[in-house]
Amino acid sequence: MLSQSLRLFGAAILIATLPGANSAQADMDVAAIPAWLAPHVGTGEGQIAPVVLDRARALYQRKRDAGAIANSCYLAMDATRPSTAPDGEPAGRFYVICEADKTFRAVSSGYGNGRKLRRADFSNGRECARHFSNAEGSKLTMGGAYVTAETRTSFKGYYREAGEKRPFHRTFLLFEGEGETENAREREIGGHQAVFLKWQCRFENPDSAYADDQGYVPFGRLVNYTGGRSNGCTSWSPDASEEIIGLVEDNPTTLYIYPESRDIDAVAKAVRNGGALSGSGPYWNTTCLTEIGAPRFWPKRTLQPIIDEWRAGLPKQPPLVLPICK
């Protein structure tokens, strides 16, 4: 337990119930954590913060008891953690927990990069997320409760591998939200591998099932942004993506993403007050809190009009026509 005199930026563990939360209903008792899982709980590298685990377990058990899911595993994410681990590799902040099999895995995941607009700058740096929102078009992460839904696989173009041109397909796992995350489908929020195809040109391939009316297909270079930022979705390494999607495809489960708006507001208030936090205070990763100063939640009612105005003022662009590959 932290002492009452521990300062905010020196805090290594800041957990427990937040203002307005009912610990008996919203968060599971830490003592109920199985013995095998306990070593994975904490704020160290590769561990899951207690409040994140508590809420993820509570959501999973609620949905399972209601008959909404039957998967033996559940998912969680801590978006307050940095992108890079001390060893320089992508840091683990997305968790796959299978209590029946007694397995726990921490993998990297992107968070929303946001936007920098004239009326509001809600862009995030590469290492730590400061801004969060559930506004459509914000490209920001929204913490809260989700259930995995169906998958959609789409063709992105061709790329070169081992001297051959090969088609690149990416599978997108949709999320269903509730409460502050209920517009997840409207926002097209889900999970996918952290790889995209950067188009460079097009080549003639009329026999391809993906050719356009003129017989051309796009060609580009694969870009892997594992551990970086995203458009608000969760994004995993190719290997982790294959595992996660395989785990939940046609067998939905829960995903809890931390922090929610109440957590963000509580931490921002604590930073403004500049006082000491006790062990019953709000949680934020210490490294990222030091970097960002204070987090900010942008309510949809505040941010949506700004985004809509920006979109309305964008000049009309002609359709993109890729050059012919040489």
Structure description:
With 326 residues, the chain is α/β, with parallel strands linked by helices. The protein has a single domain, classed as L,D-transpeptidase catalytic domain-like, CATH 2.40.440. 20% of the residues lie in helices and 27% in strands. It contains six helices and 14 strands. The protein has helices spanning 23-26, 50-65, 238-248, 261-273, 286-292, 300-312, and strands at residues 74-78, 94-98, 103-107, 111-112, 131-133, 144-161, 164-177, 190-193, 195-204, 216-224, 229-230, 234-236, 254-258, 296-298. It has an eight-stranded mixed sheet with strand order 3-2-1-13-6-7-8-12. Strands 4-11 form a two-stranded parallel sheet. Strands 5-14 form a two-stranded parallel sheet. A hairpin with a 4-residue loop joins strand 2 and strand 3. The chain is globular. Residues 1-31 have low confidence and may be disordered. Keywords: Signal. This is L,D-transpeptidase-like protein. Residues 1-26 form the signal peptide.
Task: For the structure shown, list the relevant keywords.
single chain, alpha/beta, two-stranded parallel ribbon, 6 helices, 14 strands, 20% helix, disordered N terminus, signal
| Mean pLDDT level | 89
Gap between N and C termini, in Å? Answer: 65 Å
Using the CA coordinates, give the radius of gyration.
21 Å
Order of helices and strands: HHEEEEEEEEEEEEHEHHEH
Protein name: L,D-transpeptidase-like protein
Signal peptide: 1-26
Organism: Rhodovulum adriaticum
Keywords: Signal
